[in-house]
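Whiteboard transcription, Tuesday session. T.W. wrote the C-alpha cells on the left side:
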C-alpha cells in the first residue's frame, strides 16, 4: 500500500510540476504571422505539401490556437 501511495504522490508531483512549467509554443511575431487570427491562415503555409509544412512529429490538429499562443504585445 505504501508503494502505491508513494508512486501516486510522485506522479501527481510530476504532473503538477509539468503544468506549472509548461509553456505553449509561441507564434512568431514576424511579418508573416502578424495578421494570423484563424487556423486556415496558418495552414496556407503549414498545411500538408506547403512551403513550411508541419513536421512528421507534429500532432494532427488543425486548431492551431488550441496549442500555440501569441507573444505578448503581438
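and on the right, the sequence the group agreed on:
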Amino acid at each position: 500500500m505504501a508503494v502505491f501511495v508513494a508512486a501516486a504522490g510522485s506522479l501527481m508531483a510530476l504532473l503538477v510540476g509539468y503544468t506549472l512549467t509548461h509553456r505553449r509554443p509561441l507564434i512568431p511575431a514576424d511579418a508573416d504571422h502578424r495578421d494570423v487570427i484563424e487556423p486556415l491562415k496558418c495552414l496556407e503555409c503549414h498545411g500538408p505539401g506547403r512551403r513550411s509544412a508541419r513536421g512528421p512529429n507534429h500532432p494532427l490538429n488543425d486548431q492551431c490556437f488550441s496549442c500555440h499562443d501569441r507573444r505578448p504585445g503581438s
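Someone added at the bottom: The mean pLDDT is 89.
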